[in-house]
Amino acid sequence: MTAPAYLPGMSSAQYLAEMAVSHPRLRALLDPDRLDRAVASREPAAWENEFDSDSGGRGDSYRRAQRDPLVRWTGVRRLLGLTVPAGRGREVVVLDVLGGDGTVARAAALRPGESPAGLEVLTGDISGPMVAEALANGLPAVRQAADRLLLADDTVDAVLLAYGTHHIPDGTRPRAVAEALRVVRPGGRVVLHDFAPDSAMADFFRVVSRHGTVRHDYEHFTHPELRKLFEDRCPQVRVLDVYDPFTVLAPTPDRARAAMVAHMGESYGLAGHFEAIGPDAAWQLLAEAFDHTDRPTPPEHRAVRPTVRLVPEGYVAELPRVAVVAVAEKPGA
User: Which residues of 2-29 are buried (b: 16+ CB within 10 A; e: fewer)?
Assistant: First the structure.
């Protein structure tokens, strides 16, 4: 029986050969035996998910929305700062486990002065089309499941699991954390990000389940669950609330609101619903879903309600969100 393709139109052997030429650092970190076992067990065929294409989910539209990688930059910048301690003084390799088509890597490249010095982001994802898109954008990327990483032991300085951790099935979350700790060097950090079940973002996901092209019935991480996942291995784990809004820049207030509606529609399979109800009603839906008036917020929380504000470059539409984030350091440095 022929093994399935590792990436669209590419075998695992072809992938390794390509990485040796295009991204030798990533190739040196990969464990070929783990990759061979994953392909031999036909794991990649089971990795198909809603982010592959719009025909089976929202992959194509999601990638269109991520053409602007700075929509989440406020939160991404904070996560990278938590992932990489200040003053490292050398190059730092971070594995972005749920990196999609490289949104975090592309955002950091566009904001080098606001990113940790010497940062290199390796993008991982379970979706073949997502990883193929990241590679097409010139980024080092690897197709792997969060609970079965393909890197060798103790190979990266830090691991980030963010923007999709709730997609990791409840039963495999301990293994995903164990895998992150396996590949990070002693003294390196693992940062896990999600939105709590009682958060505004979780409420919005219920809107997605009612009106989107795919349901969003995933269990979100609670503060105690995050702590429990790490505390046996990393007794000094911290669990924080982090301000992580969506922001879109445009030349006028109306265009900023329209750009935000378009981004959210494409990202979450709501474009058809937003078109049916019209742009004003779509913005009102977002304004109600992301209203934090009666919710606790961290000190850096800039907006309590969705807003459009004037900045030197134009107008920013902002949807406030609060994420829950675990920061753990691997013992043994």
Answer: eebbbbeebebeebeeebeeebeebbeb
Burial of 120 (0-12, 13-18, 19+ CB in 10 A): middle
240 bridge partner residues: 325
pLDDT in tens, 221-232: 999 999 999 998
Give long-range contacts, CB 8 A cutoff, 24+ apart: 224-233.
225/173, 226/192, 226/194, 226/324, 226/325, 226/326, 227/326, 229/173, 229/174, 229/177, 229/192, 229/326, 230/177, 230/190, 230/192, 230/326, 230/328, 233/177, 233/178, 233/181, 233/328, 233/330, 233/331
What's the rounded Cα separation, in Å, for the pair 264 and 282?
A: 10
Q: What structural domains does the chain harbor?
A: 12-244+323-329 (3.40.50.150), 246-319 (no CATH)
Q: Which tens digit of pLDDT belongs to each residue from 103-139? A: 999 999 999 999 988 899 999 999 999 999 999 999 9
